[in-house]
Specification:
By secondary structure, the protein is mainly α. It is built from 3 helices and 2 strands. It has one domain: Orthogonal Bundle (Arc Repressor Mutant, subunit A). The chain has a two-stranded antiparallel ribbon with strand order 1-2. Helix 1 packs across helix 3. The longest helix has 14 residues. The N and C termini lie far apart (62 Å). Bound molecules: FE2/S2 (inorganic) cluster.
């Protein structure tokens, strides 16, 4: 079934990306297949398919998102004025 019409990505493509390329986040999915990279209408469905794929992986293969997928914390540069 098509998930992303803009890039012609199916649920099978997403499953293959998870299984063969270790895709484990929406960011990686967008970088790999383009999913949700144009109109964004497919984002929710793609996320559901991705989540389902990751849950089906055997425990040994669970992949933690890389640090790149974590929000970047910026130091608080605001200075207090005395
Ligand atoms: S349907 Fe996926 S980006 Fe438009």
């Amino acid at each position: 079934m098509y998930v992303c019409l803009c890039y012609g990505v199916t649920d099978t493509h997403i499953r293959e990306a998870v299984a063969t390329q270790g895709v484990c986040s929406m960011r990686q999915l967008r970088q790999t297949l383009g999913v949700a990279g144009q109109c964004g209408q497919c984002g929710k469905h793609a996320h559901c398919v991705l989540k389902e794929c990751l849950q089906k992986l055997p425990e040994d293969y669970h992949v933690q998102p890389s640090k790149k997928d974590l929000p970047i914390l910026q130091p608080n540069l605001a200075l207090e004025v005395a």
